[in-house]
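Recall the central idea of this unit: under ordinary conditions, the amino acid sequence of a chain determines the structure it adopts. In this exercise we apply that idea directly, starting from the sequence alone.
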Amino acid sequence: MLNETVPSNQFFALPKVELHRHLEGSLRLTTMSEVAQQHGVTVPVNTYNLSGLVQVQDQDPMTFTNFLDKFKTLRLFYKSPDVINRVTREAVEDAARDNIRYLELRFTPVALSRAEGFPLHDVMDWVITSAQEAAQKYKIKVRLIASVNRHESPELAEQVAWLAADRIKNGLVGIDLAGNEAEFKSDPFYGIFKEAKQGGLHVTIHAGEWGSAANVRDAIENLGAERIGHGVRVMEDEYVVALAKERGITFEVCVTSNYQSGVVGSLTEHQLPRMLEAGLNVTINTDDPSVSRITLSHEYKDICEELHVPMDVLRTIVINAAQAAFLPEDEKQKLAALLKNEMKL
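Accordingly, the structure predicted from this sequence is:
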């Protein structure tokens, strides 16, 4: 869990790459308090009480239900274009402050649009514009991923996919399937993701988090996944591990999130070391930094100190993340070279 001290300088000082961060899980508490006052959102204005509603607390049950309950409150805050612009800018700023050099920020257009009935295309354009402006201001490279949920209708997902494909040139480079994989199948989305990939979008899929290794296989074989969000349960099936290695699949691992949502019983039980030993391509990410009360620096610190991942392996993970970015090959290699030079690799 996050303590309130600044992480060790060595972890903060490392240049970082993050491939799995949700905009909706990145809202600052102070921003939420101000939005609540300005727009009459009925939540506690006191930040301590508000924190209990939107952030996982040490005394909370570490369960899937408790984790997802935080988003019920978070969905109340997207009250205007200005709010959506602000939270996007601040998410990028917070990443830059944590020495992240390249960020892929995913957002769920349907969730952002629903509070006030905004058109999906407007929401997507607001996020794109704000992310571009913040990236330039804070000197961080940012790309966006549009996320759709398994429990939503395929028709909505298809609409998001088409709108996203029209915005590739504006930095919206990927599409993601998220949501409750334990109760909702991915079959209705097969055709949509195939068309999205043909349209030039990269594909990442949440799988093997609350569902079995079979979901990782499904994501690779039927949804065209290049990367897997979480994926820690891949270790339950040797065949799927071999398939992932053969296809060069990258895993977007989120250690604290997996503990807080009940995927693993404790940080020290996390499968990350086994995934590395198996030769899987693993990256480290925050998932929802505000909900989890963490930064990527804290995640780096935890995997080294709690899971005993050596610093040289951590540096390699940073490079692997750069090479797994949803960027053209020349841009990926340039990013990796800059990071290697800074880390003296």
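The chain has one domain: 9-26+93-343.
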